[in-house]
Amino acid sequence: MATVKPFKALRPSKEKAAQLSAPSYDSASRDKSYQELETNPYSYLHIVKPYLHFKGETKNPDKHFPLGLSFLEQFKKQGWLIKDEKDAYYIYRVIKGSNAYTGIIAAASVDDYHNNRILKHENTLTEKQNELADHIRWFKQLGNPVLLTYPDSSKVEGVIEHYIENHIPEYNFISPDQLKHNLWVVNKQEDVELIRSEFEQIPNLYIADGHHRSAGSAAYCEYERNQLPNFTGNELFNYFPVCLIPFSKLHIYEYHRLVKDTLVNSPLFMERIHHYFEVIPSGHLPVQPLKPKEFGLYFNHTAYLLKLKPEYATQLKGVLANLDVSIVEEFILKRIFEINDSKTDKRITFLDGTKGIFTLQETIDQKESDLAITLYQTSIDEVKQVADEHLIMPPKSTWIEPKLRTGLVIYETI
Question: Could you count the other beta carbons within 10 Å of the beta carbon of residue 16?
Fold first, then answer.
């Protein structure tokens, strides 16, 4: 069973929630972050990305983080950030167009993460997770919850619906990216116990988005445990903030691959593609695959639809090998380009499906990359099966929404 606890959040005042909270770490570009810092004195980015105040400098915690801590103290002193007095769960809803994503923000256990009650489907980069652990050591907080998913629960949904239908939200605002955000505080004891007990019946939770934040929180916890050998396991540093949204309420987008390599412009490239795939010329616009096991190529203003040849398809064994992202990894990236580690090879970058096919076309036409490989999205069932079997997908296999606003519900580790 999974431990999902209520906690006392540090949160913006109602008046400052829209200005103080910021786009998620993953979705905010550096240019947008610079603009946010320059135009918004209340932004949480002043706390979590203080190094952006030092343009052109590499992030240096000893030099830059004290500035972030001074902003944190200022925000608390001004009453812009306020600590809740009672443990609570937090119902958080993001509305994008006609899609509403609703989940419960809570504290999850690092031990559950280590013991595979919280299951992973992606590897993390050690350098990045250590950076995050270092950040938590300095600030003693994390304001961007990890997105977890779980089998649908009618009882949990009942509590959520009751609050949405019968309570005025604590926060109700539209962010600059045209998303609507609502938050309800659940601190009534009987509702808290219902949510807690219901999650205790769920054997496993699954990381949907935030593998590095999970790993960074675990690394930070290990550091604190080493400083306190007689820890009990109940200390706040043994937990990290999560937002729990059921399987049926998530949306997974495709993740395309972009390759920069001179091989693309050689006749040898298409010769090798023909060796592994049936190739269908598809005009001069990038192909957006509409079903699994179909892929698109776009380069030199020309598009092709690919289907893996049957003699190779029959060699695929198990859920991992049959993923579209794994087929691209094996038969195009590794066998043709000799890209054996797509996490570190500088020839490959990634573009999520939310950016649109026109953005992908422009990226190739403007020669930022030489080749686009377009894919169909990975399904939630595939993500679940990979995690259940303790397997790891290739990097950037999924772009999962919603992306949670940061600085809205902050978990403090002390």
Answer: 17
Residue 71 has phi, psi (to 5 degrees) of: -65, -40
Ranges assigned E (strand) in 53-170: 81-83, 89-96, 99-109, 118-119, 141-142, 146-150
Instruction: Name the CATH architecture for the domain at 255-376.
Output: 2-Layer Sandwich (3.30)
Question: Which sign, positive or negative, has the C-alpha torsion 114, 120, 126, 127?
Answer: negative
pLDDT of residue 343: 84
Kindly list the averaged pLDDT for each block of 10 residues, start to end, along the chain of length 414: 93 97 72 87 95 89 96 97 97 94 97 94 80 95 96 89 94 94 96 92 92 94 95 97 95 96 96 98 96 97 98 95 97 97 92 94 97 96 94 90 94 96
Contacts of 261 (CB under 8 A, 6+ apart): 337, 347, 370, 371
Domain boundaries, the chain: 4-252+402-412, 255-376
Task: For residues 383 and 349, give the distance between their C-alpha atoms in angstroms, rounded to a whole number.
Answer: 21
Cα radius of gyration rounded to whole Å, the chain = 23
CB 342 within 8 A of CB 394: yes
Structure-block tokens of residue 86: 């009672």
Q: What is the pLDDT of residue 123?
A: 76
- CA 406, distance to chain mean position in Å, is 12
Q: Minimal CA–CA distance to 367: which of 300, 282, 270?
A: 300
Q: Are 125 and 22 in contact (CB under 8 A)?
A: no
pLDDT on residue 124: 74
Q: What is the pTM (predicted TM-score) of this model?
A: 0.90
What pLDDT score does 269 carry? 98
Cα separation, 297 vs 279, whole angstroms: 10
Helix (H) or strand (E) holding 257: strand 255-259
Specify which residues 307 forms β-bridges with: 278, 294
CA–CA separation, 241 vs 145, rounded Å?
A: 5
Residue 152: burial class (beta carbons within 10 Å; 0-12, 13-18, 19+): exposed
Q: Percent helix, strand, coil in the chain (nearest 5)?
A: 40, 25, 35
- Would you mind telling me the total number of residues written for the chain in this entry? 414
